[in-house]
Amino acid sequence: MQKRKLGRTGLEISVLGFGAGAVGGLMTKGAPADQERAIARAVELGINYIDTASLYGNGESERNLGRVLKALKPDVVLGTKFRLKAADRSRVAAFVAQSMDESLKRLGLDHVDLLQLHNPLVARDADDHMDVEIALNEVVPALQKLQKAGKTRFIGFSGVGEPAAILKAIDSKAFDTVQVVYNALNPSAGGPMPEGAPGLDYARSLDHARAADMGTIIIRALAGGALAGTEARHPLAMQVVPPIGSAPDFAGDVARAHQLEPLLRESFAGSLTELAQRFVIANPNVTTMLVGYSTLDQLEQAAAAVEKGPLPQAVVDRIFKPA
Description:
Blueprint: E1 3-5, E2 12-14, E3 16-19, H1 26-29, H2 32-45, E4 49-51, H3 60-72, E5 77-82, H4 92-107, E6 112-117, E7 121-122, E8 130-131, H5 132-148, E9 152-159, H6 163-171, E10 177-181, H7 205-211, E11 215-219, H8 250-258, H9 261-265, H10 272-281, E12 288-292, H11 296-307, H12 313-320
Parallel strand pairs: 3-4, 3-12, 4-5, 5-6, 6-9, 7-8, 9-10, 10-11, 11-12
Antiparallel strand pairs: 1-2
């Protein structure tokens, strides 16, 4: 599997990552044997980046990963995340340090490769929506302290919230990585927002990340599953998936996904999910694409899609400028 450089970190990570969140649900609610089989198969396929968070399954994803990592001892790059509530703003540094220690305990590790701020970034602080100035002036120093202590090698943040705040955090060059919302329903992080498309304009944030020499970790590559073209959910998966930066509701995203089906009839891809995944990796400013899995079959499908390579540029252009 192709590997790409994760920005200034120098790490080489697979273009397809393993998302251990609750949207797919395998690593939060799956059977232990299936979880171990999935990680083992991912490594066998060449996947070497795993992404989790303390929020996923209220710590269950980290606990389950810890068990699997102890059993398999795979050579992987591991990232986790933490989120502060409003009550934590008075003790940012202490909370970040405490959250790191709790994550390491659940994971059974003495350090992670990447620790990321999970809060949406905004201009005005409200509950878990964090003022970007707090992120830059209080969270970043707390993360740098953990770096010096050897508890995380690199630091990053989730690029969700208000686009202006996200771009400010990227342009500050304070972080090593950013998680970017980028998919065929809202490709604005990588180019112009398609005319008439609903959602937030992420204003070519992938270009900004490249200019800042940051690694980019794509989230919502399948728009929470909408780009499978169905509202049906696997029993392990999150049953209600609020859209991020796209249509007002999941059904609206599914309906828009069906508008891409002419590209399938022209044989550019065998399925909507394959089309969506190959669209994401076609952008050279993408380091890795996270997919959340419910089953091993979904893992196999994603790996097979990536192995087919990026979509041709002419097809990418049609997604940016639909007829």
